[in-house]
Amino acid sequence: MTEERLKKPDEILNDVCLSSENQDWLNSKPDFRKGTYLYSAPLKHQSYLGLPNQREWNPADADWKLPENWKEVILSGMADLLRKHRSFRLFLDICVRCGACADKCHFFLGSGDPKNMPVLRAELLRSVYRRYFTLSGRLFGRFAGARDLDEDVLKEWFYYFYQCTECRRCSVYCPYGIDTCEITMMGRDLLNRVGCNVQWVIEPASNCFRTGNHLGVPPHAFKETLDFAIDEIKGLTGISVEAPINKKGAEILFVAPSADYFANPHWFTLLGYLMMFREIGLDYTWSAYASEGGNFGLFHSAELAKRLNAKIYAEAKRLGVRWILGGECGHMWRTIHQYMDTFNGPADFLEEPVSPVTGTKFENAKSTKMVHICEFTADLIYNNALKLDKSRNDKWSITFHDSCNPARSMGLLEEPRYIIKNTCNNFYEMPENTIREKTFCCGSGAGLGADENLEMRLRGGFPRANAVKYVQERHGVNMLACICAIDKAAFPPLLDYWVPEVGVCGVHELLGNALIMEGETERTTNLRGEALADEAVDDIR
Amino acid sequence: MSILLPVIGILVLLLVCLTGVVWFKFTFLFGVVFPYAASFIFISGCIYRVVIWARSPVPFCIPTVCGQQRSLLWIKSDKVQSPFTSWGLIRRMASEIVFFRSLFRNDKTELRKGQILSNDASRLLWLGGLVFHWSIFIILVRHLKLFVEPVPRFAVFLQNIDGMFQFGSSNFYLTDVFILLSLLFLLLRRIVSSRMRLISIFTDYFALYLILAILVSGVLMKYVYKADVMSIKRMLMGMLAFKPFVIADMSPVFYVHIFFVCILLIYFPFSKLMHLGGVFLSPTRNLKNDSRAKRHVNPWDYPVKVHTYEEWENEFRSALKEAGLPVEKRKIRKSKEDND
Fold first, then answer.
1. What are the C-alpha distances in Å from A390 to residues A426, A510, A539?
2. Chain B residues closer than 8 Å to A25 by CB
3. Out of A73, A471, B38, B336, which could bridge A477 as a Cys pair, Cβ 3.0 to 4.6 Å?
């Protein structure tokens, strides 16, 4: 068998036609071609989480080994979700198919597949909803846009609801705020009820449930990796920082996405956190039990999201901290900002967050009691609590990618920019309609960051990469800063493919570079061990 | 198919009405019974739909945030697109409902030369939609003169502005022109663009044709057949007072107009046209972005199976101790070791 070859950029774009001629979408079936779909969840993890219809199965097979009564399960599941979520019922009811959302989806722009238009992605469910839950659909069938539920429809759901990154960009443009993320969440919830889950969501979720983090890092390895970071900082700055774990009575519990301490280039963001915490003398602790800020449960169902999220408050209570600080992560912050208090609150055992350094009260977090590290750091910089040397980031011309969830679910737009502007001299924005609330997704969020669907991820990431290319050509941008762990994992291969020569970093890596620590040895390299700007320029000369 | 079939549907309806009125002289049926029935279905249907939506819980606080959050005091927050206060939320909802704010953001993204995605503001849909809906609104207000005595002053005022231009001897209404143009625009964009054709279904066209039919019959009545406004008003006031009667010799075009309006009223609650009510209830727009400052309660929340700290420590206790990390319980293992 020959190895599946990855298409070249122009080959991929040649496939794309945004004005589709295939008019009969109700009857066309998805093509489970390698590179476009996700693998199924391994049995071991299905059973660890106690998911329905546990079995080994393969999406590319004709037989999905569905339970005999799968149709009833789906339809009663739909009734259940309709009863529980106004968003679901309303969004199925009121779409007028104006088409404003069509060219807003990165997957449509990168694939040209009409069912990746948000309006049609929703129609996949809506057509079934009409058939079984509305009078007009029951009476007039096809004329009312209704169709029967059969296995092909279910397979289509699986294909397209795992081809949506729940980035909410379409919702920004919809005149009624119809949010495809909600539709996709409900679609995935329904698929779960008949046991159709994907590995890239279930395995991290199961790991997180057992060990405390998505990567399945056990506590001793967690300690080792933090020790390693401490050594590295010692080598870079001559300073011994501390990284307390499970320390009772600390003032603050710090929770970051697990990729920060196990993946690259996330690692340098971790170094940045640790250096800053040392510099301000923060009394804080990590937790090995709640060693994950991210929440892959959110990509599966509200229930699984709640099960994983419970650890953070439970641990904050056990350790007796006053409030919680959270690291750079995208969907983690959607969970914390819009769900955590509802899931597992009220957090009445915590105190309203106050910066121990500046005395600033974070009133916007007074109920959830969890502060985003960019809010925390921006406040430190504003109050001159950090000494910074911008020139240490001079070798980079930086642009900032707004991660979908902090941008569109939280409105965290200026805080990271403020930090970047205070730690770097060269900062350039991408075009206005690709940043802030209009930001384009990396194409790998919501559990899509696997290897087997790489082609689809590259397609989905194309609009974002194209905007990066724009600033690369105009301003010589060679570094993309972001505040999301999935971004940091997804962008290196993505940019390498579409816009070579642009690196990826976290905002707190830039801070770590610029931070002048008391008593540090002279820095000759950045956190990556690369020569600082001046020498780099000298080298070229 | 889905473009033409609804046309046939409209023509059949037209035929039904004309046969009924001209041939069979069922004027009471078409002038009184249908309108009563349609109004009843419309009102009860709309209430039913809105009540179903309004009673469905909103378990999570999920606004789509379109601006800077309120966080640190020195960072200017977007009070409307990321509303933190009720006043901000009211402004956001008003901008959506009155000016179609979200649609105003619309841009057009295309692949050009296989490489560059270009983004240009594309406000035509916004403009067409806004003109269309505002024209409907003004036309409805204008129609108040047929239902209310004395005619409200703002209705007279609007009508005077709307009818300030003259064509030949008679005045005409600007909104009649605007609605016709915008309706044709909305229809043509569905038919001309292959992408719009793809996403449009039967009902999308049907709704547009139906409104077009109402529009055409109304325009014919006013400008061509010059229907007697005072007779129409007497009939409608009679209906409103529940003392219905039919005036003889009303032009058939009046019945056609009324008939299509009835069809619209009946169709409305069961169709996508309910977006009129739904837009007020959309959870991504009508919630404040204050979910970390104020706890949002999920009415159907239930306890879930979690992996507790105790279970976790039981599994990893020896590893924790080996790594020098604190543990809650040493006892279980210790007593075992002691026994050993």
1. 9, 9, 20
2. 198
3. A471
At B111, is the pLDDT very low, low, confident or very high (cuts 50, 70, 90)?
confident
The full DSSP string for A220-261 is HHHHHHHHHHHHHHHHHHS------BS-TT-SEEEE--GGGG
Where are the strands (E) in A295-337, listed by range?
323-326
Confidence class for position A1, pLDDT limits 50, 70, 90: very low
| Fold entry, domain B5-108+120-281 | Fumarate Reductase Cytochrome B subunit (1.20.950)
B309 touches chain A (CB under 8 A): yes
pLDDT at A31: 86
pTM to 2 decimal places: 0.94
Q: Any bridge partners for residue A482, and if so which?
A: A401, A506
Which residues numbered 218-237 in B keep a CB inside 8 Å of some CB on A?
A: none
* pLDDT tens per residue, range A422-432: 999 999 999 99
Which domains, from first to last, does chain A contain?
A: 52-196 (1.10.1060), 213-382 (1.20.1050), 390-540 (3.40.50)
Residue A169 has pLDDT above 60, yes or no: yes
Q: Is A95 on the interface with B (CB under 8 A)?
A: yes
**What is the reported pLDDT for B113?**
62
- ipTM surpasses 0.95: no
SS3 A168: coil
A341 interaction partners in chain B (CB closer than 8 Å) = 291-292, 295-296
Of A515, A524, A520, the closest CA to residue A234 belongs to: A520
What are the residue ranges spanned by the domains of chain B?
5-108+120-281, 309-339
Report yes or no: A143 at the B interface, CB cutoff 8 Å.
Answer: yes
